[in-house]
Specification:
CATH class of the largest domain: Alpha Beta
Number of strands: 12
Shape: globular
Protein backbone atom coordinates (compact mmCIF):
# COMPACT_ATOMS: atom_id res chain seq x y z
CA UNK A 1 0.00 0.00 0.00
CA UNK A 2 1.35 3.44 -0.99
CA UNK A 3 2.26 5.65 1.96
CA UNK A 4 0.30 8.92 2.17
CA UNK A 5 2.07 12.06 1.03
CA UNK A 6 3.09 14.02 4.11
CA UNK A 7 1.80 17.55 4.60
CA UNK A 8 4.68 20.02 4.83
CA UNK A 9 4.47 22.13 7.99
CA UNK A 10 6.39 25.15 9.24
CA UNK A 11 6.62 26.20 12.88
CA UNK A 12 7.04 29.87 13.80
CA UNK A 13 8.27 30.37 17.35
CA UNK A 14 11.19 28.43 18.80
CA UNK A 15 10.04 28.39 22.43
CA UNK A 16 8.60 25.51 24.46
CA UNK A 17 5.39 25.11 22.47
CA UNK A 18 7.08 25.29 19.08
CA UNK A 19 9.86 22.89 20.03
CA UNK A 20 7.48 20.36 21.56
CA UNK A 21 5.35 20.51 18.40
CA UNK A 22 8.50 19.85 16.39
CA UNK A 23 9.34 16.74 18.40
CA UNK A 24 5.75 15.47 18.17
CA UNK A 25 5.72 16.00 14.40
CA UNK A 26 8.69 13.66 13.96
CA UNK A 27 6.49 10.71 15.03
CA UNK A 28 3.70 11.52 12.61
CA UNK A 29 2.93 9.50 9.49
CA UNK A 30 1.01 12.43 8.00
CA UNK A 31 2.99 15.64 8.59
CA UNK A 32 6.63 16.66 8.16
CA UNK A 33 8.32 19.77 9.53
CA UNK A 34 10.19 21.51 6.71
CA UNK A 35 10.93 24.81 8.49
CA UNK A 36 11.50 25.85 12.09
CA UNK A 37 11.67 29.63 12.35
CA UNK A 38 12.27 32.01 15.22
CA UNK A 39 14.53 34.93 16.09
CA UNK A 40 17.49 33.35 17.87
CA UNK A 41 19.61 30.67 16.20
CA UNK A 42 21.21 29.90 19.56
CA UNK A 43 17.95 29.06 21.34
CA UNK A 44 17.47 25.53 22.65
CA UNK A 45 14.63 25.01 20.20
CA UNK A 46 16.74 26.01 17.22
CA UNK A 47 19.53 23.68 18.30
CA UNK A 48 17.05 20.82 18.70
CA UNK A 49 15.59 21.44 15.23
CA UNK A 50 19.05 21.64 13.68
CA UNK A 51 19.97 18.35 15.35
CA UNK A 52 16.90 16.75 13.80
CA UNK A 53 17.94 17.93 10.35
CA UNK A 54 15.10 20.44 9.99
CA UNK A 55 15.71 23.68 8.07
CA UNK A 56 15.99 26.54 10.56
CA UNK A 57 15.78 30.32 10.19
CA UNK A 58 16.08 33.36 12.43
CA UNK A 59 13.86 35.42 10.09
CA UNK A 60 10.52 34.38 11.63
CA UNK A 61 7.54 34.92 9.31
CA UNK A 62 9.85 36.39 6.66
CA UNK A 63 11.33 32.95 6.07
CA UNK A 64 7.94 31.79 4.76
CA UNK A 65 7.21 34.98 2.83
CA UNK A 66 10.54 34.63 1.04
CA UNK A 67 10.08 30.92 0.34
CA UNK A 68 6.33 30.16 0.39
CA UNK A 69 6.68 26.77 -1.28
CA UNK A 70 8.52 25.44 1.78
CA UNK A 71 5.27 24.56 3.57
CA UNK A 72 1.54 23.94 3.22
CA UNK A 73 0.54 24.55 6.84
CA UNK A 74 1.93 26.89 9.49
CA UNK A 75 1.83 26.52 13.27
CA UNK A 76 2.03 30.01 14.80
CA UNK A 77 3.54 29.64 18.28
CA UNK A 78 4.39 33.29 18.90
CA UNK A 79 1.97 35.71 20.59
CA UNK A 80 -1.58 36.94 20.08
CA UNK A 81 -0.38 40.34 18.87
CA UNK A 82 2.21 38.86 16.51
CA UNK A 83 -0.34 36.46 15.05
CA UNK A 84 -2.47 39.37 13.83
CA UNK A 85 0.44 40.51 11.65
CA UNK A 86 1.39 36.98 10.63
CA UNK A 87 -2.13 36.13 9.51
CA UNK A 88 -2.23 39.13 7.18
CA UNK A 89 0.81 37.74 5.34
CA UNK A 90 -0.09 34.05 5.51
CA UNK A 91 -3.65 34.60 4.29
CA UNK A 92 -2.29 36.26 1.15
CA UNK A 93 -0.05 33.24 0.59
CA UNK A 94 -3.03 30.90 0.90
CA UNK A 95 -1.54 28.99 3.83
CA UNK A 96 -3.50 26.95 6.33
CA UNK A 97 -2.64 28.26 9.79
CA UNK A 98 -3.05 26.58 13.15
CA UNK A 99 -2.89 29.38 15.68
CA UNK A 100 -1.44 28.36 19.04
CA UNK A 101 -1.99 31.85 20.48
CA UNK A 102 -5.20 33.22 22.06
CA UNK A 103 -5.69 35.70 19.18
CA UNK A 104 -9.09 34.15 18.28
CA UNK A 105 -9.00 35.43 14.70
CA UNK A 106 -9.84 32.07 13.18
CA UNK A 107 -12.25 29.20 13.75
CA UNK A 108 -12.23 28.19 17.42
CA UNK A 109 -11.34 24.51 17.52
CA UNK A 110 -11.60 21.75 20.10
CA UNK A 111 -10.85 18.49 18.24
CA UNK A 112 -13.14 16.38 20.43
CA UNK A 113 -16.04 18.63 19.43
CA UNK A 114 -15.53 20.15 15.97
CA UNK A 115 -12.40 18.71 14.34
CA UNK A 116 -14.28 17.29 11.35
CA UNK A 117 -16.15 20.55 10.86
CA UNK A 118 -12.94 22.61 10.84
CA UNK A 119 -11.25 20.24 8.39
CA UNK A 120 -14.20 19.63 6.05
CA UNK A 121 -15.09 23.30 5.74
CA UNK A 122 -11.55 24.12 4.70
CA UNK A 123 -10.90 26.60 7.49
CA UNK A 124 -7.69 28.48 6.73
CA UNK A 125 -7.15 29.87 10.22
CA UNK A 126 -7.78 27.41 13.04
CA UNK A 127 -7.44 28.72 16.59
CA UNK A 128 -6.58 26.22 19.33
CA UNK A 129 -7.98 28.59 21.99
CA UNK A 130 -5.91 28.00 25.16
CA UNK A 131 -4.53 25.14 27.22
CA UNK A 132 -7.25 25.65 29.83
CA UNK A 133 -9.82 25.80 27.05
CA UNK A 134 -8.71 22.48 25.58
CA UNK A 135 -8.92 20.90 29.04
CA UNK A 136 -12.26 22.36 30.15
CA UNK A 137 -14.42 23.09 27.11
CA UNK A 138 -15.04 19.45 26.12
CA UNK A 139 -16.34 18.69 29.62
CA UNK A 140 -18.47 21.83 29.70
CA UNK A 141 -19.79 20.91 26.25
CA UNK A 142 -20.70 17.40 27.46
CA UNK A 143 -22.69 18.93 30.32
CA UNK A 144 -24.43 21.27 27.87
CA UNK A 145 -25.56 18.29 25.81
CA UNK A 146 -27.49 17.07 28.86
CA UNK A 147 -28.68 20.49 30.02
CA UNK A 148 -29.26 22.90 27.14
CA UNK A 149 -29.73 25.90 29.43
CA UNK A 150 -26.69 26.65 31.56
CA UNK A 151 -26.77 29.72 33.75
CA UNK A 152 -23.06 29.92 34.53
CA UNK A 153 -19.81 28.09 33.82
CA UNK A 154 -16.53 28.73 35.60
CA UNK A 155 -13.25 26.97 34.84
CA UNK A 156 -10.15 27.25 36.99
CA UNK A 157 -6.84 25.85 35.76
CA UNK A 158 -3.80 25.51 37.99
CA UNK A 159 -0.45 24.98 36.24
CA UNK A 160 3.19 24.83 37.27
CA UNK A 161 4.73 28.29 37.09
CA UNK A 162 7.76 26.76 35.35
CA UNK A 163 5.55 25.64 32.46
CA UNK A 164 4.35 29.20 31.74
CA UNK A 165 6.77 30.84 29.34
CA UNK A 166 7.06 34.53 28.41
CA UNK A 167 4.34 34.36 25.75
CA UNK A 168 1.85 32.78 28.18
CA UNK A 169 2.54 35.43 30.81
CA UNK A 170 2.33 38.25 28.28
CA UNK A 171 -1.03 37.01 26.96
CA UNK A 172 -2.88 36.43 30.24
CA UNK A 173 -5.67 38.88 29.39
CA UNK A 174 -6.12 37.29 25.95
CA UNK A 175 -6.08 33.85 27.61
CA UNK A 176 -9.03 34.76 29.82
CA UNK A 177 -11.01 36.51 27.06
CA UNK A 178 -10.52 33.73 24.51
CA UNK A 179 -11.30 30.91 26.95
CA UNK A 180 -14.49 32.64 28.12
CA UNK A 181 -15.60 33.37 24.54
CA UNK A 182 -15.01 29.75 23.52
CA UNK A 183 -16.93 28.44 26.55
CA UNK A 184 -19.92 30.53 25.48
CA UNK A 185 -19.65 29.41 21.87
CA UNK A 186 -19.54 25.70 22.62
CA UNK A 187 -22.00 25.56 25.54
CA UNK A 188 -24.40 28.47 25.08
CA UNK A 189 -23.91 29.39 28.75
CA UNK A 190 -25.28 32.79 29.71
CA UNK A 191 -22.18 33.70 31.68
CA UNK A 192 -18.66 32.27 31.74
CA UNK A 193 -15.51 32.84 33.76
CA UNK A 194 -11.96 31.55 33.26
CA UNK A 195 -9.20 31.57 35.87
CA UNK A 196 -5.53 30.66 35.41
CA UNK A 197 -3.36 30.05 38.48
CA UNK A 198 0.44 29.90 38.12
CA UNK A 199 1.62 27.73 41.01
CA UNK A 200 5.32 28.15 42.00
CA UNK A 201 5.41 24.97 44.10
CA UNK A 202 8.48 22.72 44.08
CA UNK A 203 8.36 20.06 42.82
CA UNK A 204 6.13 21.47 40.06
CA UNK A 205 2.47 20.43 40.10
CA UNK A 206 0.61 18.68 37.28
CA UNK A 207 -2.01 20.68 35.43
CA UNK A 208 -5.45 20.48 37.03
CA UNK A 209 -8.65 22.08 35.78
CA UNK A 210 -11.93 22.24 37.69
CA UNK A 211 -15.16 22.92 35.83
CA UNK A 212 -18.19 24.37 37.64
CA UNK A 213 -21.60 24.62 35.98
CA UNK A 214 -24.84 26.04 37.38
CA UNK A 215 -27.97 24.40 35.97
CA UNK A 216 -31.55 23.82 37.04
CA UNK A 217 -32.25 20.33 38.44
CA UNK A 218 -29.00 18.68 37.27
CA UNK A 219 -29.30 15.07 36.09
CA UNK A 220 -26.10 13.68 37.57
CA UNK A 221 -26.42 10.18 36.09
CA UNK A 222 -26.69 11.45 32.51
CA UNK A 223 -23.97 14.03 33.13
CA UNK A 224 -21.56 11.36 34.38
CA UNK A 225 -22.18 9.22 31.30
CA UNK A 226 -21.69 12.20 28.95
CA UNK A 227 -18.48 13.32 30.70
CA UNK A 228 -17.05 9.80 30.77
CA UNK A 229 -17.68 9.43 27.04
CA UNK A 230 -16.00 12.77 26.35
CA UNK A 231 -12.94 11.87 28.45
CA UNK A 232 -12.51 8.66 26.43
CA UNK A 233 -12.71 10.67 23.22
CA UNK A 234 -10.05 13.15 24.33
CA UNK A 235 -7.73 10.36 25.48
CA UNK A 236 -7.47 9.26 21.86
CA UNK A 237 -5.25 12.27 21.16
CA UNK A 238 -4.21 13.34 24.70
CA UNK A 239 -3.10 10.13 26.47
CA UNK A 240 -2.45 11.90 29.80
CA UNK A 241 -5.97 13.37 30.13
CA UNK A 242 -7.60 11.98 33.28
CA UNK A 243 -10.83 12.54 35.19
CA UNK A 244 -9.80 12.72 38.86
CA UNK A 245 -13.05 14.01 40.41
CA UNK A 246 -16.27 12.56 39.01
CA UNK A 247 -19.07 15.03 38.24
CA UNK A 248 -20.66 15.85 41.60
CA UNK A 249 -23.70 17.91 42.58
CA UNK A 250 -23.64 20.65 45.21
CA UNK A 251 -27.14 22.14 45.18
CA UNK A 252 -27.71 23.43 41.66
CA UNK A 253 -23.99 23.42 40.90
CA UNK A 254 -22.04 20.65 39.18
CA UNK A 255 -18.29 20.38 39.58
CA UNK A 256 -15.66 18.00 38.22
CA UNK A 257 -11.87 18.03 37.96
CA UNK A 258 -9.45 17.01 35.22
CA UNK A 259 -5.70 16.35 35.44
CA UNK A 260 -3.39 16.41 32.42
CA UNK A 261 -0.02 14.69 32.53
CA UNK A 262 2.28 15.51 29.63
CA UNK A 263 3.88 12.95 27.33
CA UNK A 264 7.37 14.17 28.21
CA UNK A 265 8.46 14.68 24.60
CA UNK A 266 10.37 17.96 24.90
CA UNK A 267 8.68 19.33 27.99
CA UNK A 268 8.53 17.74 31.47
CA UNK A 269 5.48 15.63 32.24
CA UNK A 270 4.19 18.28 34.64
CA UNK A 271 3.72 20.64 31.65
CA UNK A 272 0.39 19.05 30.76
CA UNK A 273 -1.00 22.50 29.99
CA UNK A 274 1.33 22.83 27.00
CA UNK A 275 1.04 19.17 26.06
CA UNK A 276 -2.75 19.20 25.73
CA UNK A 277 -2.87 22.14 23.32
CA UNK A 278 0.00 20.68 21.29
CA UNK A 279 -1.61 17.24 21.10
CA UNK A 280 -4.84 18.92 19.97
CA UNK A 281 -2.98 20.91 17.31
CA UNK A 282 -1.10 17.88 15.98
CA UNK A 283 -4.35 15.92 15.74
CA UNK A 284 -5.87 18.74 13.67
CA UNK A 285 -2.86 18.95 11.34
CA UNK A 286 -2.99 15.18 10.81
CA UNK A 287 -6.71 15.30 10.07
CA UNK A 288 -6.10 18.04 7.47
CA UNK A 289 -3.29 15.97 5.97
CA UNK A 290 -5.55 12.89 5.76
CA UNK A 291 -8.31 14.91 4.09
CA UNK A 292 -5.87 16.01 1.39
CA UNK A 293 -4.86 12.40 0.71
CA UNK A 294 -8.45 11.22 0.11
Amino acid sequence: MKSPKKLKIAIIGSGNIGTDLLVKSTRSEFIECTLFAGRNLNSLGMKRANGLGVTISDRGIEAIINQPEICDLVFDCTSAQAHIEHWTALEKLGKIVIDMTPAKLGELCVPAINADECASQGSKNINMITCGGQASIPIAYAISQVHKEIEYIEVASSIASRSAGPATRHNLDEYVETTEAALKKFTGAKKTKAILILNPATPPIDMQTTIYAKVLNPDIDRIQVAVSSMVNKICQYVPGYKLIVEPTIDGDRIFTTIKVIGMGDYLPQYAGNLDIINCAAISMAELIAKSKNL
